[in-house]
Amino acid sequence: MVAAAQRAQAEGFDGVVIACSGDPCLQVVREAVDIPVSAPTEAAIRMSRAFGKLAILARQLPDSYASRLRSLGSGDFWQTTARENGLNEGEYAFRRVPITNHPEPDVLDHLTSADPDRLRELTLDAMTQALRTDGLRQAAAAVAEDGVDAVYFACTFFSKGIAELNTDGAYFGVPVLNPLVSAANFVESAIISQSAGAVTSSFV
After folding, report:
1. 3-state SS class at 16
2. How many domains does the chain have?
3. pTM higher than 0.85
4. Which of 12, 70, 108, 158 is 20 to 30 A from 165 in CA distance terms?
């Protein structure tokens, strides 16, 4: 990831977006280049300050992934990430969106090398379907029960479905922070701040 960011800078890009809501290697990549770098969750949390209390809606993978998820460590990843990005306990609510049709682990393992495009298609379909069903229900519950002012679906695979539904609150009741769009907008703002007077910018 560091090499990719350094290559992007060498090729003339003005900023880098790490396109994963886990914000992997964010600080390491940021320290390796001289152009702005951000990732979806950092960007969404910072942007949520303009609205108020934020709902973080994370994907819930099928039970068949339980052993893999345990191997990754603590189960309070999103709560820890919220705190690390400056949110106090009362400033956010956390809910999960079950992804019932997510590709099973054996399918994921096979397609990762055999047909990554097919894996991406299956995952996008499953995430979009979950967004339109349980995602909408969880967003509505977060508004009604948790009193949130904005919603963040914490996986970039939700971005396609969010874009299709729009983020004007018609479906969700409050503004929705699209993971990829939030990160891109945040980096673009950083580019403008870094290069005052720049008219156009590019990022990867």
Report:
1. strand
2. 1
3. yes
4. 108
